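User: Design a sequence. Structure:
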């Protein structure tokens, strides 16, 4: 039986080194749930999607991948998506240390 992927996007966490990401780096593991929030008033990108962990801003979904997720969040459909850490590469450059996946929640 064919089962489609629930993944909307899999990407690195943009801006990780510039926000509070380094403060929580040791707490993150593959599978750690993350918080998503649209920032339509962001002066650099009106479709920006902030990524958080326990209330701390740890980065953003890269601009090339944020459009659909931003629309879902802005129009009140944030309850159908979930985000989590899917890759940790401590030896990579700070902008590439954390990978995330955003997927549609399985409500079956």
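Assistant: Done.
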């Amino acid at each position: 039986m064919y089962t489609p992927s629930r993944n909307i996007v899999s990407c690195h966490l943009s801006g990780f080194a510039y926000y509070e990401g380094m403060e929580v780096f040791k707490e993150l593991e593959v599978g750690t749930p993350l918080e998503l929030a649209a920032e339509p008033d962001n002066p650099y990108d009106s479709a920006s999607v902030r990524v958080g962990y326990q209330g701390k801003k740890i980065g953003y979904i890269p601009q090339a991948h944020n459009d659909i997720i931003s629309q879902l969040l802005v129009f009140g459909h944030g309850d159908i998506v979930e985000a989590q850490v899917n890759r940790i590469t401590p030896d990579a450059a700070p902008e590439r240390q954390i990978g995330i996946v955003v997927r549609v929640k399985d409500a079956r």
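Strands lie at 7-12, 33-38, 49-53, 56-60, 81-88, 98-104. The first strand starts at residue 7 and ends at 12.
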